[in-house]
């Protein structure tokens, strides 16, 4: 079954570690082993563009990630907003170059999205087909000022989460607790996003930031890679009332493959223990499906839950559930949903139709 992956922070690590993701995954992994000093998790990556075709991934929300390093934010990888902007632009250029090579198709509007999905749905062999990609930004530090948003929009940026790890220039994010809210020109950025009918991604955002965002922002809401706090405790996951708020706004919640977000023992997200303090086989795809099912039970239907792999964002297969070696293994979710009584129409919703409907309505 084709699927749409709600979160693949592809360009960041591809550029940082010089991974050639146009190659077969076995070759990329082998290169990672050779370059283990400079790319310590290269052997573990789950995805390349050929692997996406094998996995029947018709489209993915891909990300630009450029977070400023601040006190208590070890996840930041640049030191100034100039560097964040420049890193973000390099990642944007990476996606545009992949399109020039006909490896991917950037889906910037309804027409492009609908046409691309129609082509995939009417094909049986995806070997040489471009994979569709909608560009998002994970943490908004690369946007130096709300007035600059039009520049990014014109290059294809369609959705933004205001924070990632730590406090961004616009809001509190993961690892800062739940009480910190918007900062700086967060409100102004949301207003500009609203004017452009952009999509707000509330993933990685503190509880108070989400509350404020939903009050200010009137446009479409999603969570590209977000799990459920009542299933797996911890601030990175959302409480039920926030999940319900996304559902009530007609949004879609993509669920992350990061085992930290499914492990039943709460961790301190401001000091993430690495390597993981549990074996890979302790978290399974059944745990992943628990989050899908929880959102379906909250909404009373299968219209708001989806796949949001966080693909390779969690360190590759070492940070994925027991049964997952590559993105091809996402297909194993079908059997688990069937065993829980989900009909084929429900599984289609979760695999691709919920994302498909959302973007056919909310892209320009």
Helix-strand blueprint:
Blueprint: E1 3-8, H1 10-16, H2 25-34, H3 49-54, E2 57-64, H4 81-100, E3 104-106, H5 110-121, E4 131-138, H6 149-154, E5 157-161, H7 186-195, E6 199-201, H8 207-216, E7 221-222, H9 240-248, E8 253-255, H10 285-299, E9 305-307, H11 333-339, H12 344-362
Parallel strand pairs: 1-2, 2-4, 3-4, 4-5, 5-6, 6-7, 8-9
Helix pairs in contact: 5-12
Jot down its keywords:
two-stranded parallel ribbon, about 375 residues, 12 helices, seven-stranded parallel beta sheet, alpha/beta
**What form results from the Cα inertia axes?**
globular
Class computed from helices, strands and strand pairing? alpha/beta
Tally of DSSP helical segments:
12
Count the domains: 1
CATH fold type: TIM Barrel
In the CATH classification, which architecture applies?
Alpha-Beta Barrel
Mean pLDDT: 97
What is the straight-line distance between the termini?
27 Å
Question: Which regions contain 5 or more consecutive residues with pLDDT less than 50?
Answer: none
Q: Biggest sheet: strands, sense, closure?
A: 7 strands, parallel
Q: Secondary-structure element sequence?
A: EHHHEHEHEHEHEHEHEHEHH
Query: What's the CATH H-level homologous superfamily?
Result: Metal-dependent hydrolases
Task: Tell how many strands the DSSP assignment holds.
Answer: 9
Q: How much strand? A: 5-15%
Question: What top-tier CATH class fits best?
Answer: Alpha Beta
**Share of helix, binned:** 25-40%
Radius of gyration equals 19 Å
Quaternary organization: single chain
Describe the structure.
This protein is an alpha/beta fold. The chain has a single domain (3-362), classed as Metal-dependent hydrolases (TIM Barrel), CATH 3.20.20. It is 36% helix and 11% strand. It has helices at residues 10-16, 25-34, 49-54, 81-100, 110-121, 149-154, 186-195, 207-216, 240-248, 285-299, 333-339, 344-362, and strands at 3-8, 57-64, 104-106, 131-138, 157-161, 199-201, 221-222, 253-255, 305-307. Strands 1, 2, 3, 4, 5, 6 and 7 form a seven-stranded parallel β-sheet that branches. Strands 8-9 form a two-stranded parallel ribbon. Helix 5 packs antiparallel against helix 12 (344-362). The protein is globular, with a radius of gyration of 19 Å. The relative contact order is 0.14. The model has no long low-confidence stretch (mean pLDDT 97).
